[in-house]
Amino acid sequence: MWDTAFFALELTISGLLVGLMYSLVALGFVLIYKASGVFNFAQGDMTFLAALGLAALSVKLPLWVGVIIIIGVMVALAMAIERIVLKPLVARPPLVLFMATIGIAFFLQGLAQGVWGTQPRGLNLGVADETYEIAGIFVSSLDILGAIVAGVLVVVLVWFFQKTKTGRALRAVSDDHEAALSVGIPLRKAWGITWAIAGIVAIVAGALWGTRVGVQASLALLALKALPVLILGGIDSIPGAIIGGLIIGATENLAEGLLGPMVGGGIKNFFPYLLALIVLGVRPYGLFGREIIERV
What we know:
Elements: H1 2-36, H2 43-60, H3 63-86, H4 94-116, E1 131-134, E2 137-140, H5 141-163, H6 165-175, H7 177-182, H8 187-213, H9 222-233, H10 238-263, H11 267-282
Antiparallel strand pairs: 1-2
Helix pairs in contact: 1-5, 1-6, 1-8, 1-9, 1-10, 2-3, 2-4, 2-8, 3-8, 5-6, 5-8, 6-8, 9-10, 9-11, 10-11
């Protein structure tokens, strides 16, 4: 009995650490959805592009130089997307914008592989992948690093949106586009800033996941892993993305470790989506999402 409880505790802790890294991917979706009301299908491909570029540059340049270059690339990319794709689609139905992000996703994946090649690459952040024993529980050094980075990034984002003038303007845009325009907040500039922030979040997520699992095209599928996190936490809630990631990370680990041996394993692949379906039936807008009420 004690052994099972201790095993469950170990699974929960390792799941929580991985869950924070899920939250990083989900944060990119939340930021763009809050500012523009668009589900950005390209977020996973932005993560892949950032990770592949960083892996390619880090072979020839110091890591910090590669990070600066990739930040410049992602910010320039955000500005280009705003000018070339979003500007002509202002006031169009959300479905049109969603389809545009699908096109952006395939373009980014082709662009990344066209510039930096199609071969899988490793990414070294200078942190050895070692396992530490803390109070009898084994924890990966990469998981600890990911959790620390994710925690710091969340604190910075919360401070930015709560305390800075630009952050408050972005929140106003997310609440009501027309009201924000009426008080002089430029909608297009807000979209550009939001995509740039989402691009920087993609760099952090891509660097951590690329170090953990390697940089390859399948990294773009991380977007699918973020879906149950968004459904659970709420697609328009930054705290929801964090708590949703923690819940998904812990419960999928527990399901795989405790129930997997009884049914042959593989539960980890579908359990988050099963949990998301249950939440959809009870709270369609997620645990922390905003319930939109339209009065007729």
